[in-house]
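Q: What would this chain look like folded?
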Amino acid sequence: MLKAVNRVLLGLIGLGLFALGGGVVLGGLDLHRRWGFDVPGWWPFRGPDDVVLGTEGSTRWREEDWLWPAVIAVLAVLLALLLWWFLAQLRRHRLGQVLIDSEDDAAVRLNGRAMEDAIAEEAQALDGVSRAHVRLTHRRAAPAARVRLLLRPHAEPAQTLGQLSRETLAHARDSAGLDRLPSEVRLREVRHRARHVA
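A: My prediction, written as structure tokens:
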């Protein structure tokens, strides 16, 4: 879902910047007159001498004290949002691969999604677990697991956590040949409506 949203947003921003940059180049080099086509009437850059805010525009808003602080505040918020979005793209949310040392000293790569699915499937089979979600993080050579369990109302959290640690996570660690698999587990109970008795 996040990848699709990122691709759509990047595509829209890219198209907008491409159109804006292309329009500025057309106006700055006076290409529309040279090549014999017209630009829309609302387009501000019609020739090499045009500016973003002309004399009329700058004098029109000179007496409005609120305008420039508002413009600067909006641009600062926009810049902060874009920086947050950029940094969110750099952060690795999940491991694509896990490196496993084989007996012949060759590095074997295990698909991270497959390992997540295997852990989640085994965790979901535990007594009292309604749903399990697993995400591998950190480094490929030293992965860590983030596990979220949705527990049924009859589940005992301490017992479920013990089973998860002793069985599911230990099995995943041993089958992947890892020395350790640090894990963060979050438990949540299924919400259910109270039944009305007539």
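The radius of gyration is 29 Å.
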